[in-house]
Amino acid sequence: MSLATALLGLTWLSVTAYALLGGADFGTGFWDLIAGDPQHGRPRRTLIEHSIGPVWEANHVWLIFVLVVVWTAFPPLFAAVASTLYIPLTLVAIGVIARGSAFAFRKAVTEDWQRRLFGAAFAFSSVITPFFLGTIAGAIASDRVPPGLARGNIITSWANPTSLTCGILAVGVCAYLAAIYLTADARRDEDTALAEYFRRQGLISGIFVGMLALAAIAVVHSDANQLYQRLTHRGAALITASIAMGLLSLLLLARRHYIAVRASAALAVTGLLWGWAIAQYPQLLPGLNLDQAAAPHATMQATAITTAIGFVVLTPSLAWLFILFQANTGEQRQQLSVRTRSRP
Amino acid sequence: MMSAVAAHTSLLAIGSIMAPRSQMGFSLGWHIILACLGVGLPGLILFMEWRGQRTGDVAYRLLARRLARALGVLFAVGAVSGTILSFEMGLLWSGLMEHYGSVIGLPFAIEGFAFFVEAIFLGIYLYGWERLSPRTHLLSGIPIFIAGVLSAFFVVCANAWMNSPQGFTERNGKLVSVSPWAAMFNSATWPETTHMILAALMVTGFVTASVYAVAMLRGHRDRYHRLGLLIPLSFACAITPVQIVVGDWAARYVADDQPAKLAAMEGLYHGQNGTALSVGGVYYDNALHGAIHLPNGLSLLAHLDPNAYVAGLDGVPAGQRPPVNVVHLAFDTMVGIGFALLALGAWLAWTWWRHRDMPTTTWFLRAAAVSGIASVVAMESGWITTEVGRQPWIVYGLLRVDQAVNPAAGIGWGLPVLLVVYAVLTTATIYVLRHMTRTHPVPLAPQESDVTNAEVH
Q1: Cβ(B446)–Cβ(B59) under 8 Å?
Q2: Cα dihedral angle (A82, A80, A64, A16), rounded to 10 degrees?
Q3: H or E stretch covering A102
């Protein structure tokens, strides 16, 4: 395996991590948006705050990591995508600002109207951001971003049937993942009513995502036939596995196998992403293959070495973060809510 | 006729780069204040928590918790405003990244990991206050501080490379080989990174101190507020003289590697031996008017020799000269504030030496209250000096800003959009921080229960 392939694989692994972790954080924003009036929505929103509070910043770094590795190791890819797709990327950037800051602000304020204002900003931007990230994925997958600076159409490259379908699919997948994670979090807190609420939402959104995926196949078939051919040939095995895992996760959710449902849903998303990647490999953009995009050898080597060292530091740190906040949150939350209530 | 056409096209080029250049400058200038606090505050909070654990002093422990709560908000805003910058590297400067991404990218990639470590341990530190033993909790904060300082180092490495582009060879405008480590550790790296890391610590110290100075001016003279003023102020004042020496080192690097920038900083048109140091004044008609001149000062400072030759703007083609007045004024502002802060530190040290106590006169508190904004202005002026002083280059001597900009139609709209977004963000950040202190006022005589009930997140 060449260095370029290894670094591309590593980048894609980071994209996958971002989709599974950062994506679920965005998904919680969707559920926050429709959690209902302040009184009914309070326990739901509290669960969301406590679930993503300690981890969202770390999960967000996967995105930054993808950007910096791509611009270091594959500069022509980064330049072409960023220059042609600057409009959806700007909207993603604004969504990132609004989501992160509004989430932090909402926790810091006390009045109902303030919490609603910042909550609305948090929730709305949590839906917008994955949508535009999805349109970007659709633009690249359907060969609409040519190499070179701003060579593609700055509007139709991302405002087209495939991109828009990918955008909606991204929002749906994020919401589905979030519902599954939140169900498990609520169950660990022994809050059965809340767990059942998110389980029901998970089933509804899961069925919606499934239907959307069917529609997406039709859209891609008519709008981006080249992509359709790739996905149904080289990507076929993984795409099929992804569909199977998605269906399995719905079944498991219906039967309340909360641990297994997480694994199968994550595998469904992973299968979709890697199916796309393998279908397209080694083409990055139309007319730009991996070897042509790769930086000079010394840069690839230095990036690979630092990334390897970085992951050695990162893995135990991330493990500690997740283990620390997955354990007995129920007791903690009860203490917290008692304290919140007793506050003058 | 030809020159008129050329002038017209270059004006057009300036028009098209003005918006993205302002957008980058604005979002960088905004983020860097948060970045400074992100580097310095964890260190300050850890010191407070450590003292609190050692002495059991309620004031220290409450300070640690309340500052940590503010850090939670500031870090989130800093994280997202920093993300925008990495987007803008591509949205606005795709020409730079396409050309030199493989040369400049390594420090950014390493910074990605440092930021990762920061974010992970910040989550553990803020949310783990009640879950971890005091000792483990204190230790869990150390990686935040180390990674924060390293983040600043790596990002400034990339900026240093734009000033001293090294570590690669080009043939006919194409990269033929890259030595990413040599590019990262270029000749500007050490003076620039040291200068910036110290600046970040100074900004944190003076800004934090100024918050408590304002509170003391409003009559809160208890131990909590006195410590909140004294500790960050002492740290910042102790760093100030070091920073002035480092600044001199950085300026000597500029004199050697970027003579056009130094000439603009000093408004020097004619290169000559035994050059005077110029303070103030306005530059027009190829000369500085109304400045105070210290004979042989510049030669001495730049080259440690009163008769040394200092290059002027006359050695640089007219189209490659930076705008002198902005650079000269920004440089003088930075240096002037640096010495004013040194004087504030001397005041504090003198009173401490004579009376074993800090000065609590209204004038001292007023000076401390202003020091926060002053340090931010000095830091921003420093960045204006180095960034505007490099114009028209984005990569010094190799790539002009107008060659690096994204050629896509309509990118100028990013500036007004971002100005609106940042206006909202600024208002909300200040509002929330003020709201936090108002809804949770500091008790007059803090008790143990006030500390344990102070919410961190």
Answers
A1: yes
A2: 120
A3: helix A86-108
Q: What angle do CA A185, A27, A255 make, to 5 degrees?
A: 50
Tokens of A13: 């692994």
Q: Is A100 on the interface with B (CB under 8 A)?
A: yes
| Among A57, A63, A71, beta carbon nearest to B89 | A71
Beta-bridge partners for A289: A283
Q: Residue B164 and residue B394: Cα distance in Å, rounded?
A: 11
Q: How are beta strands B393-395 and B399-400 bridged, if at all? A: antiparallel
Type of residue at B225:
H
Tell if the CB–CB gap between A83 and B102 is shorter than 8 Å: no
**What residues contact A201, with CB distance under 8 A and at least 6 apart?**
A31, A175, A179
The predicted-structure confidence for A98-151, as pLDDT tens digits, reads as follows: 999 999 999 888 888 888 999 999 999 999 999 999 999 999 999 999 999 999
Structure-token pair, residue A330: 């129920």
Q: What is the pLDDT of residue B8?
A: 43
Residue B310: phi and psi, rounded to 5, are: -120, 125
Q: Tokens in use for A91?
A: 């909207």
Angle (CA) B429-B433-B438 rounded to 5° is: 145
| DSSP one-letter string for B240-287 | HHHHHHHHHHHHHHHHHH-HHHHHHHHT--S-EESPPEEES-EEETTE
ipTM entry: 0.89
- 3-state SS string for B162-173: HHCCCCEEEECC
Packed helices B189-217 and B223-257: angle between N→C axes, nearest 10 degrees: 150
**H/E stretch holding B176:** strand B174-178
Joined together, the tokens standing for residue B259 give 């003579």
pTM for the structure as a whole: 0.91
Going by C-alpha positions, the residue among B166, B181, B174, B72 that lies closest to residue B125 is B72
CA dist B285 and B279 (Å) reads 18
Taking a C-beta distance cutoff of 8 angstroms, is the pair A107, A324 a contact? no
CA-nearest of B405, B89, B107 to A93 is B89
Flag whether residue A108 sits within 8 Å of chain B, measured between CB atoms: yes
User: Which residue, B63, B130, B127, B56, is CA-closest to B452?
Assistant: B130
Residues of B in contact with A306 (CB under 8 A): 106, 109-110, 113
- CA pair distance A129, A38, nearest whole angstrom: 24
CA distances from A46 to A276, B46, B120, B331 (A): 36, 29, 21, 50
Q: Distance between CA A75 and CA A7 in Å, rounded?
A: 13
Binary contact (B86, A68; C-beta < 8 A): yes
Q: For residue B298, which amino acid is it?
A: L
| Among candidates A73, A81, A96 on the partner chain, residue whose Cβ is nearest the Cβ of B80 | A96
Give chain B positions within 8 Å (CB) of A96.
80, 83-84
Q: Is the dihedral of CA A9, B169, B406, A291 positive or negative?
A: negative
Tens of pLDDT, residue by residue over B34-73, are: 999 999 999 999 999 999 999 999 999 999 999 999 999 9
User: Does A334 touch chain B if contact means CB atoms closer than 8 Å?
Assistant: no
Q: Which neighbouring-strand residues pair with B171?
A: B174
- The residues pairing with B172 across neighbouring beta strands, listed in sequence order, are none
In this structure, are residues B278 and B288 in contact, taking their beta carbons and an 8 Å threshold?
yes
Q: Which of B119, B181, B417 sits opposite A302 (nearest CB)?
A: B181
d(CA A144, CA A160): 10
Q: Measured between alpha carbons, how far is residue B414 from residues A102, B284, B400, B409 in Å?
A: 21, 33, 21, 11
Determine contact: A330 vs chain B, CB below 8 A: no
> Which pLDDT value is given to residue B15?
55
User: Exposed, middle or buried: residue B130 (CB in 10 Å: 0-12, 13-18, 19+)?
Assistant: exposed
Under a CB-based contact definition with an 8 Å cutoff, are residues B127 and B69 in contact?
no
Interface check A306 vs B, CB under 8 A = yes
Higher per-residue pLDDT: A258 or A223: A223
